[in-house]
Design a protein that fits this description.
The chain is of the alpha+beta class and 124 residues long. The chain is 27% helix and 24% strand. It comes from Chryseobacterium glaciei.
Length: 124
């Protein structure tokens, strides 16, 4: 559920939902044109992560990408899966298989950032 909803945040969320892959702030800025400014996109994307609507991915190119969450909530935000960036087309995808990382006794995981780069099925 979208907290503190505005028309602008809804526009950004709709773009994120309709994306076929994870998107960066720059991608959304190009897509939305002059409808939304850079700072608003940045704040909205981060609030979506806080609300369990999206998750943030740190790519091997140093940029953050955002993907719409499926089956997540603010209290149960699960995205222990790999992300894949195609070196040819640049598409970033969530690989749906959940990963179980066994940590030593006493350790608690807060974040998982598994990243693979290579060539997607369309480009290989």
């Amino acid at each position: 559920m979208l907290k503190r909803n505005t028309k602008t945040k809804q526009l950004i969320l709709d773009s994120l939902k309709n994306s076929k892959s994870a998107v960066s702030q720059d991608i959304l800025l190009k897509e939305l044109g002059d409808k939304v400014d850079r700072a608003t996109i940045y704040r909205a994307l981060n609030s979506f992560c806080d609300d369990g609507i999206a998750h943030k991915i740190l790519s091997d190119d140093g940029k953050y990408y955002f993907a719409f969450c499926v089956n997540c909530s603010e209290k149960a935000h699960k995205h222990n899966h790999y992300h894949f960036r195609c070196l040819s087309c640049g598409k970033i995808e969530c690989i749906p298989n959940e990963i179980e990382v066994k940590l030593p006794v006493g350790y608690q995981s807060v974040n998982f950032n598994g990243f693979i780069s290579g060539y997607c099925a369309n480009c290989s």
